[in-house]
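[#protein-structures] MJ: dropping Circularly permuted type 2 ATP-grasp protein here for a structure pass
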Amino acid sequence: MADLFEDYRLGPGWDEMFVDPGLPRETYEALHATLQPLSSAELGVRADVLARAFLDQGITFALKGVERPFPLDIVPRIIAAEQWRTVEAGVAQRVRALEAFLADIYGAGQVLADGVVPRRIVVTSAHFHREAAGINPTNGVRIQVAGVDLIRDEQGTFRVLEDNVRVPSGVSYVMENRRAMAHVLPEVFAATRILPVESYPAQLLRALRAAAPNGVGDPTVVVLTPGVHNSAYFEHALLAREMGVELVEGRDLVCIGNEVAMRTTAGEKRVDVIYRRIDDEFLDPVHFRADSMLGVAGLLNAARAGRVTIANAVGNGVADDKLLYTYVPDLIRYYLGEEAILPNVETYRLEDPDVLGYVLDRLDRLVLKPVDGSGGAGIVIGSQATDAQLAELRTRVSHDPRGWIAQREVALSMVPTLIGNRLRARHVDLRPFAVNDGDKVWVLPGGLTRVALPEGALVVNSSQGGGSKDTWVLAGTASAATPVDDPPVLVAIPEPVEPVSVPAPRSPDPGPGLGPAVAQQQQQQQSARTVGEGAARMVGEEDGC
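AK: finished. structure tokens for Circularly permuted type 2 ATP-grasp protein:
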């Protein structure tokens, strides 16, 4: 105890392991009992084994154009069964509401006619694509995979930070984290009932097969990747291998007569379902970027003709526009007749002149986020910004209030993290992954916990230098989750906390020796980071980690 915890200090956020200094919460008792007798040297040896295992297996993430081992902290994050039931129900509820919303806006548009969401919010979104109109999925599913980013606030309440329903990434690290942790902390696994995560590929494959076009009994599923230069290529390859399907690039596919086929050594083979890990803009040069070498010409026409299914669907990004996020509680009431189980972080819409003026007067106490941003890029956390940064922000927000939202600064919950040879409190968030097969929304128990490694930092996503933790959901008896009240959109501003400001990264130079396809792979990788999921972080790859 003395070696590891004697100088451990509770931070400004809600500490998930300790009620008081030295007094662990019930969910962490077994883990605390395991760590307590270890010396810092012994824990360091286990951490080194963990890091070497990731390096040897090639489990990496591209940071500023450089591949590095994905940083996994040795101290897991633990969630009690009853807490997880609320998360599970809340995530599934949001996915169902967003499914209904996407079907509506690319169809009848009744939600717009009824004024639940202003029409201008949808049509001015950078990710609303009219090209998606008329593409009706066979089983009605547009969101086969969702990643709903959560934080726990100062009282330990789970809140939604953002929704990611384009192409959310990070699930491969959930599976690999678990495999690695089972080897370095076997005594805790032996003493704790933890829900497994290895069924995710099977759940995903079932959802993809269920989305196959009508009349296809044994669909051919492929994973479409931008290529090896994409920051999440490891995940693309892992999921294809685990599902037992082909990993393909755009050059491996051809679309003729609204049929999509895969080139093989035995000739062309029809493809029925494409799990794409390519952004909309690069997916089909006929309808989007004409210079794209990553997608497949004619793919959208084939989808509109009902001959192939694209998962996730084109145009989903309008549902994770950060301004649309503020309307999700209203969408839940409108489509489902329910109150939101998981509340949002208190958020300001800036198109109202009075609200805009209120926010501009308090920039040094708020978090400003671009509505179409990802990967932590573009966030300005006012309490840590310079006068020059605030002045520039004031100008940008004043000229484009639709392009920004403002949120209060949230002191994210904290979990002990190995920093050097000592345990220190660090801020975390959580991305649960949901899979929708048309009959049920299944939520992977645990998800990806990201941790901000620098002291005091609140931006936790990997593209900004954050790490991860294995997320353990404790097994328990099933019961219904209890809904909670949703907060109003406009709220009083609390006292500021101590987060940091993160500048947008520069686009990398692809270098003189790289061809256009490689450059586009790098461009998508970078544009995704600069385009998730707050006060904690925002996400990018696609909707990356």
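MJ: nice. Residues 280 and 314 are 6 Å apart (CA to CA).
AK: one more thing. The chain is about 30% helix and 20% strand.
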